[in-house]
Structures are given as structure tokens and as C-alpha cells.
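Lecture 7 notes: from sequence to structure.

We start with a single chain of 184 residues. Read the sequence below before looking at the structure.
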Amino acid sequence: AVLGIKHGYLIPQEKKAAAAMFKGEQYFAKDSFNLALNGNGADYEGFEAIIDQYGSTSAGNLAKAYAGICYFKMGDNEKALDLLKSFSGSDDMISPAITGLIGDCYVNMGNVKEGISYFEKAAKQASNEVISPTYLKKAGIAYESLKQYGDAVKAYTTIKEKYFNSMEASDIDKYITRASALNK
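Now the structure, written as C-alpha cells:
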């Protein structure tokens, strides 16, 4: 019975979902977020329809991430937040980036403290030279906006010490100096 369900239903559903995603990914790459999200009215239904039809597949899960990013880019932080939080993944690149984007949604909605917690979580999840320094820097800037300069210095110093080869590290000293001066 399990093999029948897997090969008779789940695998074909996964293939259909992946095929449906192709055109949406093309629209997404061209920054046509509304088309990617809602379809073109002809041969592509949109990420929302893919989520509804194939939400239990891995392609449907990825559609949630794409749809969340589309809503974020279109300025709808609440819808973006719902979709991004429903995405589940465990890889070292996409999952931390989605976690960081959830932080961006919270910051845009005025909940800076919650945003910072997601930035720090994303940096820790990724633990790499590309994503971690980006979100640590965002956390530092957010801490500064809350006048928590000591915490900002910690975030910036982590970039300098742990991710010294990253792009963010090239000018991090000015951030450390500014936050340190304001911390007095």
C-alpha cells in the first residue's frame, strides 16, 4: 500500500508540481513577481495555485518560499511572513536566507526585536562566509536603531573575527567605530 501511494500518487504529483514551477521561476528571475505569484491567465497558474494543488510536495514547499519572496518584494509583509514561515527546509543556503527574510518582514512591520532574533538565527543556521555576515550586519544595524549599541558592536565584531574574508568585513571597522562611539 505504501509503495502504491508513493509510486502511484506522490511521485507523479512531485513531477507535475516541478513542471508547473518552471514558468514561475522564469517570471521570478525577471522580477515579474505578480505574474510569478498569480499566473499569466494562459499557460501558467502561479505559485499560489501550485501551493494549493501540490503543497505537500517538495516543489509545493519551494513554491511557498517563492511566493513569500514575491509578496515581500511587492510590499505585503504579512502575507510574506505567513508563507515564509510555512516553508520547511534544512539546507545551508535557502533555509537561512528564508529565515533572514522573515527577519526583514518583522523589521518592515516595526517589530525590530523579533527581526533581530531571526537575523541572528539565520546567521547561526548558515554558518558560512556568504550568508552569516549579511545577517549579522543587518542585526547590528537593527540593534543600532534600538540604541543597543553594545549588542551592535558584538554583531559587527563577530563579522570581523569570524568572517574576515567576507565582503561585509571589508568595511566593518567603520560600523564598529560608530557603534562603539555611541555606546558611551
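The chain has a mean pLDDT of 91. Keep this in mind for problem set 3.
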